[in-house]
Each structure stands twice: as C-alpha cells, then as structure tokens.
Design brief:
The chain has a single domain, classed as Rossmann fold, CATH 3.40.50.300. The chain is 31% helix and 22% strand. It is globular, with a radius of gyration of 14 Å. The chain starts with a strand and ends with a helix. Bound molecules: guanosine-5'-diphosphate and magnesium ion. The site of magnesium ion has 3 residues, from helix 1. Guanosine-5'-diphosphate (GDP) binds next to helix 1.
C-alpha cells in the first residue's frame, strides 16, 4: 500500500481539516470503510514527487466529552500499527490537556516516527505559545494552521523525509 501517514489526536484539534488540506491537492477519493475502520477516512497525497496515503482517525471519539483512556489507547495503537509516520495533532489554543498527555504516553512508546504538530497557530502569538507542548516529550512541535495552510509545507518536508 506504500507510505501511510496517520493523523491522531483528541477531538476538535483539526485532524479532519488537516486531512482535507493534505489530500485536496490530488482531489483524493475519500471513502468510509466497513467494520473497525468505519469511521476512518483514507486519502491520497503527494509532495515533491513522493506519494503517500493519509488516514484521518476522526471517528473514534465522536464529539464526546466523556472519553475513556482505554478507547484512546485502542485507537492510537491501531493507527500506529497501520502507519509509517504518525502525526500527533494538538491545539495551541487549548494548551496541553489531559487527553493530549494520554495520547503522548502511548506515542512515546512506539518505534514509528511521531511528528508533533501544533495546529491553529494562525498568528505569531499562537506560534510562541506552542513551546509548551515540548513538555509532551515528543520534541518541539511543528506549528501549522490547517485552516490557512501556513506551516504545512515544512510539515510535508518533514513527513516525506521519514519514509
Ligand atoms: P477534528 O475533530 O480533530 O477532526 O477537528 P476538525 O478538523 O473537525 O476541526 C475542529 C474545529 O477546529 C473546526 O471548527 C475547524 O474549523 C477548526 N480548525 C481546524 N484547524 C484550524 C486552524 O488551523 N485554525 C483555526 N483557527 N481553527 C481551526
Ligand atoms: Mg474529524
């Protein structure tokens, strides 16, 4: 199946927005799959001649305020098994949350490359505040705005360097 990038993170950090941005350049066919992958979206992307698949793990905690760490563990584990590169998305506007820490605890144990991505850094003020995510133990975050596309070129350079 080739290179696979999975986008993980708690609800509303912008996973689907980033998925759409990464896949829209190729007008990818996005399809829902049956069974355990029912809520996962798969798309195609390409950067500097390197093609890859993108998985949006969006469906796994549908707009619920009551999310169990066990469910997160299952879904993040599934995504990391399937992926060659994991994008761990956090939201600069919320800072580090308990759920971010729960996801980070799982991702720190995987041997797969994990790229920490601080989304919604639409302005410089938000880019400065993203430094706090270093505390998650996954390095410095890549600051992006999935909404405007700013920072996504550097992120894509980093992604394809991992294949
Ligand atoms: P998901 O639940 O992680 O898939 O998050 P969504 O992609 O559905 O986005 C959740 C909300 O965050 C939506 O209202 C988006 O418009 C908003 N959002 C996503 N990316 C950005 C961004 O880069 N900047 C800002 N300001 N809002 C964003
Ligand atoms: Mg989503």
């Amino acid at each position: 199946m080739g290179n696979i990038v999975a986008i993980v993170g708690r609800p509303n950090v912008g996973k689907s927005t980033l998925f759409n941005r990464l896949t829209q350049t190729r007008h990818a066919i996005v399809s829902d799959e049956a069974g355990t992958t029912r809520d996962r979206q798969y798309g195609k992307s390409e950067w500097t001649g390197c093609e890859f698949s993108v998985i949006d793990t969006g469906g796994w905690v549908v707009n619920s305020d009551d999310i169990f760490e066990e469910e997160i563990r299952k879904q993040v584990t599934l995504a990391t098994e399937e992926a060659d590169v994991v994008l761990f998305l956090v939201d600069v506007r919320n800072g580090v949350t308990d759920l971010d820490e729960a996801v980070a605890n799982i991702l720190r144990r995987t041997k797969k490359p994990v790229i920490l991505v601080a989304n919604k850094a639409d302005t410089n003020e938000w880019i400065y505040s993203a430094a706090e995510f270093y505390a998650l133990g996954l390095g410095d975050p890549y600051c992006i705005s999935a909404a405007t596309g700013s920072g996504t070129g550097e992120l894509l350079d980093q992604i394809v360097s991992k294949f």
